[in-house]
User: Fold CBM-cenC domain-containing protein from Geomonas subterranea.
Amino acid sequence: MVEKFDFEAGAAGWSAPAKTISLGTATAPKKSGKGSLKIAGTSSAGLYNFAASPRKELQPGKQYQATAWLLVKEWDHAGTAPLLKIALYKDGKFLSNTFSNSYDLKKKNQWQKLTVTVAAPAGGKIAGALSVEKGTQEQIKATMNLDEVKLQAVK
Assistant:
């Protein structure tokens, strides 16, 4: 296991890209444990995500999988659905994004598992960060809970 976020002791270093989005722990709903990360507010036009994890160093040449459980209460954009992203950085510079399956908005208020797998390139210092993405640059107002986030090497 490279990283695990269960949000039992706070937001665990996760941050929002704008002051119009609040992040905090909630005792309900939760997938497991004592709480989850509540993400609420408006991600304005030009922003791609609602929340991002701290960067974590990854081993070059290894394959990594991230999984997370997401529950969407409110989402005011019919054209896109939230998803999980792994952003890779090489020697401190942005390299690539890889996206998970999208949350099924027809099943709001249900925990759904999002999974994304990426190969860390060889050479250089590689880091990865997870984020809850919008799938668009358009403004979206949402209320979501995130829990049981894991990043692990699979190969």
About this structure: The longest strand covers residues 140-153. Residues 55 and 129 are 5 Å apart (CA to CA). DSSP finds no helices and eleven strands in the chain. The mean pLDDT is 96.
